[in-house]
Design a protein that fits this description.
The complex is a heterodimer of chains A (451) and B (446).
Chain A (H helix, E strand, L loop, with lengths): L35 E4 L5 E6 L5 E8 L13 H8 L11 H8 L3 E6 L4 E8 L3 H13 L5 H4 L2 H14 L2 H13 L13 H4 L4 H11 L5 E7 L3 H12 L22 E7 L6 E8 L2 H4 L1 H15 L5 H9 L3 E8 L7 E9 L5 H18 L3 H17 L4 H13 L4 H5 L1 H6 L3 H11 L5 E8 L3
Parallel strand pairs in A: 2-6, 7-11
Antiparallel strand pairs in A: 1-2, 3-5, 3-6, 4-5, 8-10, 8-11, 9-10
Helix pairs in contact in A: 1-8, 3-9, 11-18, 13-18
Chain B lengths: L7 E6 L5 E6 L10 E4 L5 E6 L5 E9 L12 H8 L9 H10 L3 E6 L3 E9 L3 H13 L5 H18 L3 H14 L12 H6 L2 H11 L5 E7 L3 H12 L23 E6 L4 E9 L8 H13 L5 H8 L4 E10 L4 E10 L3 H18 L3 H13 L8 H13 L6 H10 L3 H11 L6 E6 L5
Helix pairs in contact in B: 1-7, 3-8, 9-12, 9-15, 10-11, 11-15
The chains are: A alpha+beta (451), B alpha+beta (446).
Amino acid sequence: MFSKLSRYVLVAVVAFGISGAKADTKEEIPTLFDPITTTLDNGLEVVVIEDHRAPVVTHMVWYKIGAADERPEKMGIAHFLEHLMFKGTKKIGPGRFSEIVAENGGQDNAFTSQDYTAYFQNASKDKLPLLMEIESDRMQGLLLTKEAVGAELQVVLEERSQRTDNNPGSQFSEQFNATLFMAHPYGTPIIGWRHVLEKLTTQDAIDWYEQYYAPNNAILVVAGDVDAEEVFALAKKYYGPAVPKDLPKRTRVQEPPHLAKREVVMRDKRVRQPSWRQAYLAPVIRTAGVKEVRALEVLNTILSDGPTSRLYSKLVIDDKIAAGVGSYYDSSSLDPSSFVLYGSPSNGVDLETIETEIRKIIDDVLENGVTKEELASAKRRMLASAIYTRDSISSAANIFGAALAQGEAIENVINWPRQISKVTAEDVQAAAGRLFVEERSVVGKLLPEEK
Amino acid sequence: MRVSVPFLSKQRFYAYFCVFFVLFLSPIAKAVEIQQVTSPGGIKAWLVEEKSIPIISMEVIWKGGAVTNGKEKAGLAHLVASTMDEGAGDLDSRAFQKQLSDNAISLSFGANKESFSGSLKTLSENQDEAFRLFELAITNPRFDQEPVDRIRNQILISLNQKKSDPGSIAGRRWFELAFGDHPFSVPTNGFMETVEKLTLEDLKAYQRAQIAKDNMYIAVVGDIDADNLAKLLDKTFGAIADKSTLPKVEALTAADLNAPIVDVSEMDIPQSRVIFGGAGVKRDDPDYYAAYVLNYVLGGGGFSSRLTEEIREKRGLVYSVYSYLSPFQAIGLHMGGFGTSNKAVGEAISLVKAELEKMRTEGVTEEELISAKTYLNGSFPLRLSSNNRIANIMVSMQLSDLPPEYLDHRAELINAVSMADIKRVANRLMDPEKLVITVVGKPEGL
């Protein structure tokens, strides 16, 4: 949930670069471009990714606190606070933060997810000390007066209108997620339900900030034309004085056993083309291990990556029953998430046909597995994506920040290509068998209004 | 990227009689070295070598685009762009896509109002295959019935869904009202009624007329040297037509803009979507840089802009409000937009108009001018921070007829904008009474 103007797409799978090594010689697969890390005495984790192509730097601070950590009656507070973090400190006046960044030729923004809240600036590399000075200042120096907060809650309500209430697809996704997660807070939208959101107060935001904003709950990520040792020294200078806090243990209500397949149907007059989806509760590394998660990532690629994928080639090209079809898997969240299949029918085809035909493709994987050839092709593309990802320093920063904030071991990010390359056809078939359990799923149908 | 030597220009001769004009620039922020490569066959490209990642990106733009399709064939350029990668030469759609997929090559085409573009991204180890597939797609696309119908079906479904998308409705309506019957009013993706009727012959004819050498600009960034690129340029582009045969489009002037207009498309949604715009400047207008600075202060500068300050920060009426220059080749436009709750539409539009009026009468402060220049110059290196971004900027520079040295001179051009320029250009552009405003929702207070 970006609080500001742009939307950023984080790659669903953690992926990044292989330094030059070709992907076909077995032993050499994953020489990854290595992040250099340290931890300050106050608990702040620091990650540096050096990339000397351009004289610029991405500076990010990630807090290990997100919407899924909120109490039910304060849902939306993580994101509301993110907005308020631009409202000034004892040293920096209201609204001045972004102005200072801009006056120095930089760009800044922030975003909130279920698992983290992150703040970043991109600027010329010589501005790094300044960025650290002002970002570390607001780690614990935020000053929220009535004047400074102003109409910000109204801004967030307009944000909710723009993203969600103006768009039936987004409204449907909220209803759908709330059904998939029966107990876990992933069922609540990041921005919050309107009736809860509109009651949030500045004091709620202050309480949240005071409880969770601390160096031992944060990760500093710096990527770009920098020297890691110099970054560590700067980090110590600017972030070193921040005071660690006693943090509550990060536990959320987990899902009870899912015993019933559910179906969510929404009709809206703004919907002009029906669409179908089915989400299965899916594991993450913490709950199922690396091997299982990487196998599901490969499965996702085989099912839906590009026109040669199983779903598209069969249902869109051969059978012509769907205009679009695909899948996605959020493998990197802190708690178990979802693996989603989706499709939009060609004109004249009903959603039941889409559901039946997608199910046949899943059944084929469950019974016969995947072929050696499609496995090899999927791996080639995934390893290539790790190389392509190296073109963006902000992607590198995002991948490490998100992974660490979501409780991932940094080795699992670094070794992603190697782990992918080890996945076998048997792994994929077995993981699919554990994933596609109907009673752990929700079917969703978004339809035009009945005439 | 990497630090480079001071400005010098030299000619080199290579063994296979290629001539390269290699121009080393004293670069913007000491970052980008652009080489101008001319192949033996006369194909020109701009190249930035970047060996640290084993990938190559190429961006190609052809002048032309959807505006040449006219109203009757609206959506043609877009359908061609969406089907040119669906089979070429001996490879049918499936075989072509499999070849891309197995080699992890991304190849795609796009249509804009005034241009048609191609993008290629490959691991350098697959460079020959990647350029071969690109060549096949631009010289010998198949346009088989199956993929064309399949993609057309997807476009129709998307066009149908967009009929209830507030942003899409407001944008289409804006151009329709502002330009009436001129082809410039026609949306690039077309209309359901016109896309349904496009024939395979239409596709082939457009592709033949659009893809040529005399309207083409090429930028390449990555793990490839000038020598190697020159050879690939001839192989890839040698066989296309010398001259584009697209119809000429009637020129436009600011006087062709039908303003003022306020138009409402009724829709039952909580937040109205508003798009506003009027005359701007073309890229080659002497006032371009002053307009660029002015727009930054008005609504181009994210959190620092006047519109954001007045409408979002002070009053909480919007999540986002913005303005931008849209310098088309045919006409320059100055556009903006926001979403606000239905009851606040009148107030928010009045605030936008008041800010335009204020800028027209009072200009900007010295402080704002300095801040704008610092930001616009200081942030420019961020736009050159990846191979992809550099390729996109280099091809846009060529399209706008800017030389490679522009990267060095850009800061001077921006710094040269004076308070007098700002006044003159504000007076020329910031006219609250000459706006075309389209609203989608149930607005109040208009």
